[in-house]
Amino acid sequence: HAPTLAEVPVGLHQIRLLLEELGELAKAIEQKSLLRIADGVIDLLGVTFGV
Questions:
Q1: What is the 3-state composition of the chain as percent helix, strand, coil, each rounded to the nearest 5?
Q2: Which of 47, 49, 51 is nearest to 19 (CA)?
Q3: Concatenated DSSP letters for 28-50?
Q4: Is residue 34 part of a domain?
Q5: Does the pTM exceed 0.70?
Q6: Whole-number Å distance between alpha carbons of 51 and 47
Q7: What residue numbers bound the domain in which 41 lies?
Q8: In the chain, which end has fewer C-beta atoms inside a 10 angstrom radius, N or C?
Q9: Rg (alpha carbons) of the chain, rounded to whole number
Q10: Tens digits of per-residue pLDDT, 2-46?
């Protein structure tokens, strides 16, 4: 099962990284760049789940 947010250890560093990645993803969506959107989603998953 996928870990819930409560199960994922989150520190201030991870929160800052998440916000940074969310900002990048939002920019990619605004620009309608599929490559940047995919990259943003992958980066966000990496920060969230350590993938």
A1: 75, 0, 25
A2: 47
A3: HHHHT-HHHHHHHHHHHHHHHH-
A4: yes
A5: no
A6: 7
A7: 12-49
A8: N
A9: 12
A10: 766 666 666 777 788 888 888 888 999 899 999 999 998 998 888
